[in-house]
Amino acid sequence: MTQRVTVCEVGPRDGLQIAHGRMPTALKSRWIAEIAAAGVPEIEVGSFVPARVVPAMADSAEIVRAATALPGLTVVALAPNLRGAQDAHAAGSHKIVIPVSVSAGHSQANLRRSPAEQVAEVARIVAWTREQPRPARIEGALSTAFGCSIDGVVPASAVVTLAEALAAAGVDSVSLADTVGYANPAQVRALVRAVRAAVGARLERLHLHDTMGLGLANALAGLDEGIVKFDAALAGLGGCPFAPGASGNIVTEDLVFMLESMGFSTGIDLARLLEARATLRAGLPEDELHGGLGRAGIPRTFQTAA
Amino acid sequence: MTQRVTVCEVGPRDGLQIAHGRMPTALKSRWIAEIAAAGVPEIEVGSFVPARVVPAMADSAEIVRAATALPGLTVVALAPNLRGAQDAHAAGSHKIVIPVSVSAGHSQANLRRSPAEQVAEVARIVAWTREQPRPARIEGALSTAFGCSIDGVVPASAVVTLAEALAAAGVDSVSLADTVGYANPAQVRALVRAVRAAVGARLERLHLHDTMGLGLANALAGLDEGIVKFDAALAGLGGCPFAPGASGNIVTEDLVFMLESMGFSTGIDLARLLEARATLRAGLPEDELHGGLGRAGIPRTFQTAA
Question: Residue B9's closest CA among B26, B1, B106, B33?
Answer without folding.
Answer: B33
